[in-house]
Design goal:
2 helices, 17 strands
Length: about 260
């Protein structure tokens, strides 16, 4: 989904005049004196093949950017995005609507980016999204992937075709390339609470563990014991480690080894 949308956004941002209309035109925009409204229309019509691609895109994307305010200390803007039956080679990749509000602020010595997203029957490939989320992220994360400030994700009645959730996910840096993900969610499977550690010091491997005890998922307790994720080795499963799931009456252990797993 992200790859597909990235291709479309690249074409929109590059202003391919055969499909993209930007009002006012990009070449007239002054970064020091932006207009309060910018409209973008990307019309792929009955068929558009980007340069360097063999795929054909169809459909329409409208982006209405409003309330643009740029000051010496920050930036804020709102956007409404509507996609109408955007397809690649006759497969749906985007349809529906979303809104985005973005602003920057200062927390201590760091700049914080705050984004608020709301989805209305937004479909991409096989995923459908409704509800809202708010993301608070240090600007340094976008520039250097490092910061002492956490990333905070707040979900409000967020739904996909197989998940519903409200609550918070807080990602706190422990040290370089090690983060703790604190979960406090209400989901369709029950309450989810606990902390997972994500260790990328041995990149491209990522090791997932539960350093302070099990994560509760409804009536179950889940322990991650050094789960090794490595897309270069195993594309669909973990390369090593165990997951221990304990319920009221039994315990299951999933053991991963060389891209295969067993359950006992």
């Amino acid at each position: 989904m992200i790859d597909e949308i990235s291709i479309l956004l690249e074409k929109i941002l590059n202003g391919d005049s055969s499909v993209v209309t930007i009002t006012p035109p990009m070449e007239t925009l002054d970064i020091s004196n932006l207009p309060s409204v910018i409209n973008v229309r990307a019309d792929f019509g009955a068929g558009y093949t980007p340069e360097g691609s063999s795929s054909t895109y169809t459909g329409l994307v409208l982006i209405n950017i409003t309330d643009i305010v740029m000051t010496e200390t920050g930036l804020s803007a709102n956007a409404a995005i509507t996609a109408t039956n955007v397809q690649r080679d006759s497969r749906l990749i985007l349809n529906g609507a979303m809104t985005l509000g973005i602003s920057s602020a200062t927390s201590g010595e760091e700049a914080i980016i705050l984004a608020t997203l709301n989805f209305s029957n937004l479909q991409s490939v096989d995923v459908s999204m409704n509800g809202g989320m708010e993301i608070s992220m240090p600007l340094d994360m976008l520039i250097s992937s490092s910061s002492e400030q956490p990333i905070i994700l707040t979900l409000t009645n967020f739904e996909t075709s197989d998940m519903q959730a409200s609550g918070t996910i807080i990602v706190k840096p422990v040290s370089t390339d090690i983060y703790d993900m604190e979960l406090d969610l209400t989901t369709h499977e029950g309450d989810v609470e606990g902390t997972a550690r994500i260790d990328s010091t041995t990149s491209p491997q990522t090791i997932i563990s539960t350093p302070v005890g099990p994560i509760t998922v409804g009536e179950y307790r889940v322990l991650f014991n050094d789960i090794v994720m490595d897309q270069d080795v195993c594309t669909d499963t973990a390369a090593g480690g165990t997951i221990v799931i304990t319920g009221d009456s039994e315990t299951k252990t999933i053991t991963f080894d060389n891209c295969a797993y067993t359950v006992k």
